[in-house]
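retry 2 of 3: previous attempt timed out while embedding flavin-adenine dinucleotide. Reduced batch size to 1 and resubmitted. Inputs unchanged:
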Amino acid sequence: MHNRLQTKFSGVTVDSPLVLPAGVMGMSYSGMSYSAVHGAGVITSKSLTLQPRTGHKGPVMAGFEGGFLNCMGLCNPGIQDGLREVNDFKERSDTPVIVSVFATNMDDFLQLTHHVNESAGDFLELNLSCPNVFDEFGIPLAASAEEVGRIVGAVKGISKKPVIAKLSPNVYDIVSIACAAQDAGADGLCMINTVGPGMLIDTKMVKPVLHNKFGGLSGPCIKPIALKLVYQTSSAIDIPILGMGGVTYGNDAVEMWMAGAQIIGVGTAIYYRGIEVFNMINQEILAYLDEMGYETINDIPRLEPIL
Amino acid sequence: MHNRLQTKFSGVTVDSPLVLPAGVMGMSYSGMSYSAVHGAGVITSKSLTLQPRTGHKGPVMAGFEGGFLNCMGLCNPGIQDGLREVNDFKERSDTPVIVSVFATNMDDFLQLTHHVNESAGDFLELNLSCPNVFDEFGIPLAASAEEVGRIVGAVKGISKKPVIAKLSPNVYDIVSIACAAQDAGADGLCMINTVGPGMLIDTKMVKPVLHNKFGGLSGPCIKPIALKLVYQTSSAIDIPILGMGGVTYGNDAVEMWMAGAQIIGVGTAIYYRGIEVFNMINQEILAYLDEMGYETINDIPRLEPIL
Amino acid sequence: MDKRVTLKIARITRETELINTYTFKHNLGARPGQFIMLTDFEGGEKPFSIADCHADEFSITVKKVGEFTTRLFEKQEGDFLSIRGPYGSSFFISNQKVLLVGGGYGTPPLYYLARTLLDVGADVTVVNGARTKEDLVFCDRFRHLGVRYQSITQDGSLGQEGTSVDLARNLLKSEHFDFVYAAGPEMMMKALMSELADYEYEFLFERYMKCAIGICGNCTVDPIGIRLCVEGPVMPKKYVVQLTEFGRYHRDATGKRIEF
Amino acid sequence: MDKRVTLKIARITRETELINTYTFKHNLGARPGQFIMLTDFEGGEKPFSIADCHADEFSITVKKVGEFTTRLFEKQEGDFLSIRGPYGSSFFISNQKVLLVGGGYGTPPLYYLARTLLDVGADVTVVNGARTKEDLVFCDRFRHLGVRYQSITQDGSLGQEGTSVDLARNLLKSEHFDFVYAAGPEMMMKALMSELADYEYEFLFERYMKCAIGICGNCTVDPIGIRLCVEGPVMPKKYVVQLTEFGRYHRDATGKRIEF
Ligand SMILES: Cc1cc2nc3c(=O)[nH]c(=O)nc-3n(C[C@H](O)[C@H](O)[C@H](O)COP(=O)(O)OP(=O)(O)OC[C@H]3O[C@@H](n4cnc5c(N)ncnc54)[C@H](O)[C@@H]3O)c2cc1C
Ligand SMILES: Cc1cc2nc3c(=O)[nH]c(=O)nc-3n(C[C@H](O)[C@H](O)[C@H](O)COP(=O)(O)OP(=O)(O)OC[C@H]3O[C@@H](n4cnc5c(N)ncnc54)[C@H](O)[C@@H]3O)c2cc1C
Ligand SMILES: Cc1cc2nc3c(=O)[nH]c(=O)nc-3n(C[C@H](O)[C@H](O)[C@H](O)COP(=O)(O)O)c2cc1C
Ligand SMILES: Cc1cc2nc3c(=O)[nH]c(=O)nc-3n(C[C@H](O)[C@H](O)[C@H](O)COP(=O)(O)O)c2cc1C
Ligand code: FES
Ligand code: FES
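retry 2 succeeded.
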């Protein structure tokens, strides 16, 4: 039968608009499989760095009303072992894979790009949204339109894969950064990464709950912020957006689409609804199409853009 | 009996550390009374402008998982009628009142200060955190340490009341703004105002839910962001902080205290727990004092400051 | 969590030139006296009382008075409208002999109340008043319900000339009622109040509402500060007698006091 | 919502030189096989199986192996520790004839299981093994419980020399069991597995855990990708037989594969 959820992202056809985002379940080929089997249409790897990282000490995750804080600290097995998981997954599945990479200087970003070029991954995602990058980039990278443009441009120059720039919501003017990424040749944007950061305090032990003190917010409570930033950005750019942040139900995914996203990430919702969340949301989008009389997801209208 | 919840804020003794924040229930003298009767130790008026404002068209409020968006649009009866409500309340109550004022240029701020000087209010709070102030101040006022310092300094020069600067969380570096306010003579800080802003979309009518499209986040889900910003700021300044953002239970209030707040705002929680929330939280703080063996609220320790 | 739902207008019933009833297929679960906030996302979100409510549908009755309600009158069956609620307090449900006093577009919520009262075995009398015969609503519906029913208009176009307060005064003189309910223009309720010193009663109030969830403070009433969107809109006698602003002033969208 | 609670250590019981049991007064509501995440907020949050659980208290049994557990051994009764959970899957509760096979610090969760099995009328046999007599835990507790109980050490310090798998093999040869449970070192369970082709069983697994709520992906097992913190740590036979990594490798804190 005709797949009513099929859509396209930067030239690649996807069977479901739902994306497993970076850092969620994408640590191993089997975690990717498990998500794809349950209905994710695109898989993103954990953000990979040149060298392995153990990440922060625990607690690295803390729940609160409406979401979670996390300070995983970019734990990952390094680009080589990480790409092995990507390749192992691609041997078993046709599902498109976004390889997320993270670095603190230009040289590392370029090296990572060379690695990804040789992998079975379908997209290269630059995680430009870590709040604490003080190596080469003087101010947090994600906050500087100029630096974002410089990196995207250089990576684009050598990448064999379409390049997605992942942006932080915690900047003063995300649109100028999105435009810089587009002008530098980005094939798409991924937004948003976690919000804040925030903190929680244990009142009996008088300690921050997270060992790293602060962690980024994800989950249902960031959806309004994500929708606003995706809407604002999609009104200003032409490249497609992978929208995410708090999407938990089919209606959230449709909102994200209306705000301007072409494909839609579902991360923290796995906690709330189980790994079956992808299939559930797919079904809920289909029910929405039926109710509203739309043939396929691509018929769902967008909000009128902001002028 | 000895009041174990009594504390001080900028020289004024308060019988409960809980504050009714600006824009919540503080539209009329009776709304203030109703909150004070239920245990609020300090009352803030709605942010008053020189002229009356009807605010944005509805919907002005929308719920989501973990909180609310609002775009009231600074509706208020204007400084004269607003201060009449303050005076009417002060005739009936000893509870300290913070008069919140809002303006888009220096001249208006100074005029408002003159009005407040003649009122029965105990504090003057400058709402410097509206995201959309483009009149005299080139960029949103709240985001410029320089402008914040300039206004606070000028107001301080003529104010007969202690001056509190209310800061926005939606800036790149809140600490530099807090320092500017302190250096300009502010007697205290109020933080945080609403987060974001964010948006929600009606997927049947393909419209933003809020008529103003965007609205600020309040409620439980912003607590982690508020705690982090209060903690970061209190580590850097010496003036007292009126901390708020998502405080709903006694434990939240204790967290806010540990993060560095001297008194604690409780706004959106009124929706979740009723107007009785102030008394409930007061009781919960007392239960915490008992459990931990502290005599009064002032014995509750603070987190070690960030260096 | 405060939930919004967007519904198709299932039915529009013209009551008078200026009054329409809108019915929606939705299990609202409201109690008599409660209200919803309604919007078409074109600017404005307004409170409307529940005129009737079943497991599968509910309705509101709207008078065309300004920008928002004028737009409502342009809607067609099948168009979407978005609601949140139900909100607010509801009427006490008595199973004794009760009198319901309605005025103008205030009467419809008394219909849902009357139906509910009959269900628990109350002896229900309804008096309904309006300016003219053309402004009077729900007459047939009350008659079908099987309550004792009287109506009156200010212009005498139905025979008798006067207000529902006049009808109520007459009834109260000759009979005993265990409980009195009223909904309608504030000055009507104010007039009724002076007849009710010896009665238990509840009135349905209106004040400018924005958040409808009890936090913006726009709908508080002086001097006690209770919120009409949470502790109201239905107010028992014990509150009504304390309200210094009752029949004297209310607050507009800015919060300014406006004399009646 | 995922909830954290900070509790005083009510009791510390020294089991062996390297193994302590920590008891907390708290209604955890855990099922046998589930685990908690534990932290002292000094760096590190680690999974520990529930060794016993009542309405008013629960306990965990901890082996000192590294930085975090060494700090735990310095805590005193009355000190605070913070937990979240319970998390994960739990053991099937059979009321037939069952065999429980424990090894080292893996044995304690089988204690809570055995107690629960007895409650529903199961016929319970427990075999418990460790490296030396000094490493063997919970012997007295199992004996008091009234289950059939055998123990063994690798160094023969209790008489017989061998592992709990050896004890299990003998029992399985001479008797029929309806269900087999095991918890302990992975290589022990791997050895046991080859004895269990004809039996129904569940094993309790360990993998590096960070989030414990099923989203970080650190604890997924190849090739199916089920998460040991959600679908595990208790794995039924139908999953165990599919796990290509079982007894071969696991993943460390970076996600790197580490051979056993
Ligand atoms: C609890 C409650 C129940 C109500 N039930 C009904 C009902 O069943 N049927 C009905 O026709 N009307 C009802 N109303 C009144 C209805 O809300 C107003 O008629 C409507 O908001 C008018 O909007 P407008 O734009 O057409 O007129 P406008 O020109 O904006 O206003 C006309 C008048 O309506 C009132 N009004 C306007 N906005 C609001 C608001 N946000 N909240 C309260 N009052 C407002 C003011 O008194 C104003 O003077 C109710 C009001 C309240 C508070
Ligand atoms: C489901 C489950 C139940 C467990 N139950 C118990 C128990 O009841 N009693 C007990 O003593 N131990 C138990 N463990 C193991 C316990 O978590 C580790 O011993 C502890 O984390 C070691 O921490 P450390 O800092 O002292 O040692 P480290 O030096 O950090 O590590 C020693 C070894 O412990 C393991 N380990 C370390 N951190 C983790 C982690 N975050 N998640 C999983 N394994 C880790 C690794 O295999 C590592 O090689 C359990 C583990 C799991 C996954
Ligand atoms: C546990 C966890 C780990 C994450 N790790 C990464 C990461 O490595 N790289 C990255 O770009 N984003 C990371 N993110 C952010 C997510 O990819 C996503 O942007 C964010 O969680 C918002 O989506 P959600 O609300 O659906 O989870 C992580 C999020 C979580 C919850
Ligand atoms: C309905 C509403 C109206 C508000 N109006 C104002 C205002 O006029 N001035 C202001 O400084 N803050 C205003 N705020 C922000 C609150 O004072 C407070 O900073 C914020 O809501 C966070 O606290 P909470 O999570 O406890 O509500 C408003 C908040 C709400 C929910
Ligand atoms: S309408 Fe906001 S408090 Fe009632
Ligand atoms: S520990 Fe994170 S998925 Fe299991």
